[in-house]
Design a protein that fits this description.
GO terms for molecular function: ATP binding; metal ion binding; nucleoside diphosphate kinase activity. By secondary structure, this protein is of the alpha+beta class. 44% of the residues lie in helices and 16% in strands. It is globular, with a radius of gyration of 16 Å. It starts with 8 loop residues before the first strand and ends in a 7-residue tail after the last helix. It binds ribavirin triphosphate (RTP) and magnesium ion (MG).
Length: 159
Amino acid sequence: PLGCAKALQLTLAVIKPDAVAHPLIMKALHQKILEHKFIIVKSKDLVWQRQDSERFYAEHEGRFFYQRLVEFMASGPMRAYILAREDAISYWRKLMGPTKVYRARYTSPNTIRAQFGLTDTRNTTHGSDSVESAQREITFFFPEFHAQEWMERLEPSFR
Ligand code: RTP
Ligand code: MG
């Protein structure tokens, strides 16, 4: 019924504060998610405390952009999605494009960051970069969500 022959994978996608602040960008991103046949498993709007930001980006502590990154991510509302799709993790990252906005504009002008990113830090979206980080990040944003249970509710051919 879902029209998906291969196994579904979950990823965590976030629309960052720079994009949430702009209704037309929000609309374009939501549309892109649907156009590319992601299933929206869960979504929520939230605002981080600075401590949430520091905890989420702990791996970047000490990097030159860390302070502005954690400040930016706690500067306004975000929208988080759990997305399901065949190859969801790499597919979403491909749609986002390179981290650095100006590189994105030169090398992959059709990507989200090329089209909507403001700076290398205010770059519109986040996406998990591996199965392990997807699990960690899904739990970070949606502690009540149980991936296993969700998968088990699907017909076997979709798992
Ligand atoms: P993300 O984790 O947000 O999906 O992005 P990513 O893997 O492509 O990039 P990563 O290296 O993990 O960096 C995390 C976020 O830090 C901000 N950043 N700013 N030079 C800079 O100013 C700079 N470099 C990275 C970005 O918001 C990046 O997404
Ligand atoms: Mg990353």
